């Protein structure tokens, strides 16, 4: 499908009109927004077992979650070779002939291996300039090579974030059932677009899970909302970008907010991002952590919903800011 778009663009440099955003004037054309000065977390100090240095990183994590909902992870232990192998595997898939890829054309949003265009082209007015491959990799593994290292990174970060809220690890296990956590691996490809001012790669949205871990090729395009302003993200070499998802906002009772982000396309280079999203188990009903409510005598800011129902609803709806989470606000 990427080839189809690329070929149609090569044959005829006009932009396919069905891709024009329903409100093209809302697509940003100005790339002069500030570059984000994103907090940096040294993962090796979080996970090396030394309490003093860990405590310092836990404080930094808490601050990053509160002020940004977004941070960069360095010294994560994932080799450059493994990152390159992941990138190659996704590129290999996107380069397959359309008939081969079409075997995985997702008909249902909860299919464990699903490829497609846009976000959910059955409900959108106009598709986005993006193709994706989504693979469930936990609790049942649906892919040929096992990136357990990603889950380790996310679980250690979750423990650190939980700690920064002053909560016990046992409560995290009870609340989120992380041994059966739902993890999905997504490759996004954004082909060069002749008219980047008319469409999005992905419009403004938050992610449904707890944490999302992202790496990309050398082409930028990600923007995050920070204190009401969009800022451009330029990742550090060999780092992962992490953002908080809607279920972190729910379980922390709104103290840590899921961050709005969006992907811009450009007319020069293909951008590829590989994203792994970690959530609770699909059967968990996540509610604000009880001890956070008791401690501050706060009312619950969110109603609970089974995570599976949240994901299914979010994936079946138009991608629109935090609209699915907003339904759960009390
Ligand atoms: O490509 C990107 O940078 C963002 C991807 C994204 O937000 C997503 O897959 O949810
Ligand atoms: Fe996202």
Automatic annotation (TrEMBL):
<dbReference type="InterPro" id="IPR026992">
    <property type="entry name" value="DIOX_N"/>
</dbReference>
<feature type="domain" description="Fe2OG dioxygenase">
    <location>
        <begin position="181"/>
        <end position="280"/>
    </location>
</feature>
<dbReference type="InterPro" id="IPR044861">
    <property type="entry name" value="IPNS-like_FE2OG_OXY"/>
</dbReference>
<keyword id="KW-0223">Dioxygenase</keyword>
<keyword id="KW-0479">Metal-binding</keyword>
<dbReference type="InterPro" id="IPR005123">
    <property type="entry name" value="Oxoglu/Fe-dep_dioxygenase_dom"/>
</dbReference>
<dbReference type="Pfam" id="PF03171">
    <property type="entry name" value="2OG-FeII_Oxy"/>
</dbReference>
<keyword id="KW-0560">Oxidoreductase</keyword>
<protein>
    <submittedName>
        <fullName>2-oxoglutarate/Fe(II)-dependent dioxygenase</fullName>
    </submittedName>
</protein>
<dbReference type="Pfam" id="PF14226">
    <property type="entry name" value="DIOX_N"/>
</dbReference>
<dbReference type="InterPro" id="IPR050295">
    <property type="entry name" value="Plant_2OG-oxidoreductases"/>
</dbReference>
<comment type="similarity">
    <text>Belongs to the iron/ascorbate-dependent oxidoreductase family.</text>
</comment>
<dbReference type="GO" id="GO:0051213">
    <property type="term" value="F:dioxygenase activity"/>
</dbReference>
<keyword id="KW-0408">Iron</keyword>
<dbReference type="InterPro" id="IPR027443">
    <property type="entry name" value="IPNS-like_sf"/>
</dbReference>
